[in-house]
């Protein structure tokens, strides 16, 4: 009996991050809520404060190094230092109010450099196709 295993092939997805196109191969989103708890007189616990923390978005992939590869570093540095926010669309979702927390750029001498970008947003995430 012969079995066929289906292999899926996922292509890198182009993502515009502050005017820089990253061909995303990996994406991670995380969000958290912080609770403050206090002990009660009877030994129980009471939640005294609850707050949402900003979401973290991590994109890893490649950028093309043909032309002026230093422009990517200059662009990423400008985003890290800028107080202005921007929007990113990925997987049919719009992440607005994004700011760059950090990036890594690793050029190994090929046509592509490996990049990793971490953004933060406190805005609501919406579907890109919503009116």
Keywords:
about 130 residues; seven-stranded antiparallel beta sheet; two-stranded antiparallel sheet; 1 helix; 9 strands
Provide the residue-averaged pLDDT.
86
Question: Strand tally, please?
Answer: 9
Helix amount: under 10%
* Percentage beta strand: over 45%
Extract low-pLDDT stretches.
none
Distance from first to last alpha carbon: 52 Å
Count of individual helical segments: 1
Task: Describe the protein in words.
The chain is mainly beta. The protein is built from 1 helix and 9 strands; from the N terminus they run βββββαββββ. A hairpin with a 2-residue loop joins β1 and β2. The radius of gyration is 20 Å and the shape is elongated. The mean pLDDT is 86.
Short description:
Helices cover 9% and strands 56% of the residues. The chain has one helix at 70-81; strands at 13-17, 20-30, 33-39, 45-52, 55-64, 86-90, 93-107, 112-121, 125-127. Strands 1, 2, 5, 6, 7, 8 and 9 form a 7-stranded antiparallel β-sheet that branches. A two-stranded antiparallel ribbon has the order 3-4.
Please write out the topology.
Blueprint: E1 13-17, E2 20-30, E3 33-39, E4 45-52, E5 55-64, H1 70-81, E6 86-90, E7 93-107, E8 112-121, E9 125-127
